[in-house]
Amino acid sequence: ALPDVLRSVTPMVEILFTTPTRSGLGASTTGVVAPGFNYAGEGWDIGIEALVPTTHAAGSGVGVAAQFHLSLDFLFPDSIGRPLF
């Protein structure tokens, strides 16, 4: 059995390729692969991922992206968290 901390971790890999529809100077396909993980708590979650360029047009350095989400329906179940309809 896994510890509780590891049960809440979800590995992820995002892949993004973009190709411009109009040709212009220096317009070419860019690509980024973003491996990372997401940790889900009770009413919140946090994710972190590396941004790895896969094409020369996307750049040459590795970056990092992080996100923190709060669930309004968990924090304020009787006011903001209620359904509108």
Please tell me about this protein's structure.
The protein has 85 residues and is mainly beta. The chain is built from two helices and four strands; from the N terminus they run H-E-E-E-E-H. The protein has helices spanning 4-7, 72-75, and strands at 9-18, 30-40, 44-53, 63-70. The chain has a four-stranded antiparallel beta sheet. A hairpin with a 3-residue loop joins strand 2 and strand 3 (44-53). The radius of gyration is 19 Å and the shape is flat. The N and C termini lie far apart (41 Å).
Low-confidence regions:
none
- Look at the structure and give the mean pLDDT: 88
Q: What would you report as the Rg, rounded to the nearest angstrom?
A: 19 Å
Strand order of the largest sheet: 1-2-3-4
Q: What form results from the Cα inertia axes? A: flat
Helical run tally:
2
Q: What fraction strand?
A: over 45%
The succession of helices and strands, N to C, reads HEEEEH
The total beta strand count reads 4
Q: State the secondary-structure class.
A: mainly beta
Distance between the termini: 41 Å
The major beta sheet can be summarized as: 4 strands, antiparallel
Helix content: under 10%
